[in-house]
Amino acid sequence: MSIRVLICEDEPLARETLRDFIATQPDLLLVGEATNGREALKLIRALNPELVFMDIQMPEMTGLEVVRQLQSVPPIIFTTAYDQHAVTAFELNALDYLLKPFTQERFAKAVERALDAQVAPDERGQTAESALARSEAEPLTRILVRDRGRIFPLAIDDIEHLKSDLKYTQITAKGASYLVRVPLADLEPRLDPERFLRVHRNAIVNLDHVVSMKPDEQSQLQILMRDGTELLANREASKRLRDASI
Q1: Which end of the chain is more exposed for a tag (fewer CB within 10 A), N or C?
Q2: 111, 137, 163 — which closes off a domain?
Q3: Each residue of 221-238: pLDDT tens digit?
Q4: Residue 35: CA atoms inside 13 Å, Cβ hemisphere, count?
């Protein structure tokens, strides 16, 4: 049985590309196209699609605004020429995020993820508010980062430590560092508290990547990470780490 698909895209060439790519997927059935945000909102409510390709920057209403106004949120793959909304897209439970111009191979991978993530009928009626509440309550499993012009999902398990840098957060993983436009305070509630610990105001460590800890003259713990980074835990974090030790 085919999945009913809606395109929400204001650029004619981008709509044509999506239309052509959808035609190559036997499991997809195109049921409509919207050229602006308000039309997208209207068609989603009227057609009840099972998958939506949603451009973020559209006239009258952005794709993110459309999702926030929906009473029932269908599976969504966001498309855009800009990467700064990547984290927000995943916060809204997006299945994937296609950065224009994307290839047919990349499109096919997004569709494959959509097919794998088909939810049970009784879960489809979630509101945007409940989707956000659920995402805020569940630990992150991945976050999108940018490196040399490409965007890719970084597994939370691979993150060694995070440091705040004004409105950015520097994420270190697998010997590399990435900047994301999300404050450390916004990321902290979405990290597993059993593994991630804020050691001082500007840093969070993944305890799975800690090599050793030793007290300094003030009895604060000096933390050595696998990548060689040394971080000084404040008194509160040092106490928590001592209390947790056997």
Answers
A1: C
A2: 137
A3: 999 999 999 999 999 999
A4: 4
